[in-house]
Fold this protein.
Amino acid sequence: MLAYERQRFARHLCISAFFLLLLAVSWAQLEEEGNESSTSDERLGKVAVVGSGIGGASSSYFLRRLVGSEVEVHVFEAEGRVGGRCKALKHTVSNGKEKLFEVGASIIFDKNHYSRKISRELGLNHSRSRGRSFGLWDGRRLVFQSLHLPWNQTNPSPFLTSLGLMARYGRSLILLKSLVKKTLDSFLKIYDKQEAGESFETAEELWSALGLFHLTQETLGEELRLHGLSDKLLRELVGAVNRVNYNQNNSLNALAGMVSLCPLVAGSVFAIQEGNAALPEAMIRSSADFLNLKTRITRVTINSTSSDRRYVLWSGDKEVGGFDALVLATPLELATIEFFRIRPDGEEELKLDDLSNIDFRTTHSTFVHGTLNASRLTGVEKSLWMSRMVRGRGRVPDSIYATEDSQDFFTSISHYGHEIYKIFSPRRLMKAEIDQLFTVYKVLEEKEWKAYPHFHPPETLQSFRPIADERIYYVNAIEKAVSAVEVSAIGGRNVALMLCRDVFPSKCPKQRDPREEL
Ligand SMILES: Cc1cc2nc3c(=O)[nH]c(=O)nc-3n(C[C@H](O)[C@H](O)[C@H](O)COP(=O)(O)OP(=O)(O)OC[C@H]3O[C@@H](n4cnc5c(N)ncnc54)[C@H](O)[C@@H]3O)c2cc1C
């Protein structure tokens, strides 16, 4: 078990030598008994957060900001590391330097305020990969690729590439930009609402307040066709973006689809230089009192006769503590946690109905160090009007994205320099398939993810309070509409606001009456 004690908490305990002594004694007890609850200050509200991904980290971070020192936050994480679906591969490259390559969530959109601002505030750096080229692969050939100025074959020209896209997709591209921009403007309203202390009991209420709920009820394909976008744009550019982001075609819900298109049409992206997992790590370090790694929560019992430390958490047959409130920051469909209500007359298992029937897409990330077999990937559509010069002299684009038409076994292949490639695929790659792509190679890492919900609208959205009237909050209720780092951070702030209002009402901004906005 790892425990981070916040400096403030330590200062508080250091006010007298007696307290120091007490701390030393209880610390010794903690090590001896392995029971962290023995260190707790009984005057504090005790909150458990299950999951140390960005959702759990955000809950802890915003709760601390709201409540200050009156809350004791305990984070429980099943794995031996923090970050969940943010995970980097460390590899020593040809120049002898260690580099990080993102295995899970790789890019963060610039307009994602929480990820951008909090990472800066916590001293993390941003890295941006500029000048990358891309191509759209229909399974047999590149139907589009970034364009180069004849005298610069290294970096593509954004201007020429935009012209090329306009030439291929015409008015549909302009329409797409304006639709995505409109969705983004609505999405950005969440920041003002949360700053003003507004919270939402259900994901439906949250997306409705932003005027976006209707997009969760229809497919992206339906929404875009309704606005007259061409089939070609949908199958190629839009299809490729959704396959790489969600491993799904345009039948996913329109909200998830629009959000995944934002970086393409409305801004740039960055990654955390120290690795994207450094963001949840820094947020937890700055806000939680205890971080318990390798502690899978398997069972929660709710003591219906007590309001004090009402929620008792178990890891296997070990009780890990009693809490006043519980934040669940992991998809419950995958977490296999059982819930029981303890009554004077016995124990009743609680079934969380709206969690059934949600499946998660499997996505494989495969990292390869090797030499690409360029001839496998540089076939070009005959009708392409571009000259060989502007296509970058037949070089393979840095990233190749499979369009909706592609029957190929990969959804994307990206080159990160130093002959390191990341391949996303819906299933594990077979050796014969990797043999096709590389002339010589070594597989560095393979990771199977239960990556994101399988979106199929109309979506039935979940509640941030999965058990009525209980102080149990579910961050990932937000994920059934859209799955992204920033979306989990928003979910985390929402549950922090709900929890604050329920457990620490004097500390919390009053809920704004929606009628005030009329
Ligand atoms: C391959 C891939 C690529 C992606 N690319 C991007 C991208 O480029 N940009 C982007 O914004 N998003 C991307 N995403 C989505 C993004 O990673 C997720 O939406 C986000 O990280 C989810 O964070 P979370 O905290 O809600 O969940 P998670 O990160 O899944 O965190 C949940 C944590 O809970 C822990 N846990 C589970 N069960 C228990 C238990 N019983 N007890 C204790 N702990 C438990 C897990 O081990 C995990 O650490 C990608 C996802 C994948 C898989």
